[in-house]
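Please check this:
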Amino acid sequence: MSESDKNKLFENYTARTHVLGRICNAAALVLLVGAPFVIGAYLGALPNLTAAARAFLAVGLVWMISGIVEFLVYTPMLGSGGSYLAFITGNLVNLKIPCAVTARDIAGTKTGTPENEIISTLSIAASSLVTILVIAAGVALLIPLQPVLRSPVLQPAFEQVVPALFGALAYKYFRGNLDIALPPLIMISLLFCFVPSLSSATSFMILPCGAVAIGIAWFKFRKSER
């Protein structure tokens, strides 16, 4: 197959991916937003929309900024197909991104290439299927495992699951670029120490930390060109 035929085939694949992805994203959005109203209407317990709107404004703006930042950062890494799958199924930072990056490293593909697009989509699809199977098994075993899960001996371990998970994921990314990762990490750690109240606004803190990391990376890039 000639290079032009490959490019045309990939363009057709990308076009179909966008059509299917937009349909699935729209359907997921309707289901997520509509489910509470349908359940409330069926049970005769619709929420106070005014109170719900106030509650959304209190937290929605924070998560909206986080969502925009995640879209701008992750979409170039995942490509179109992987992005649609990842944003529908969720767990990007702690599951989908590591799977896609690991698959890319194993396959030896580069970001922005058709090969990376395919590898990213396949890895995230496999990750999503495994997640569904694990959740299904967890739901089925929830009651039989309750004595173990409620054991006082294991409670301290359960309280450290999230810090351990994100610490391990952070180390994977930080170790290859310590000169870029350490300055914003030190900056934000000192800021949280001196202003503890900011720890409740971590989504906002992504912006200055990201700006510092991008600035350092840009400076290194410019320096390497000289």
Residues 3-43 form the longest helix (41 residues). The CA atoms of residues 70 and 205 lie 13 Å apart. The chain has a mean pLDDT of 82.
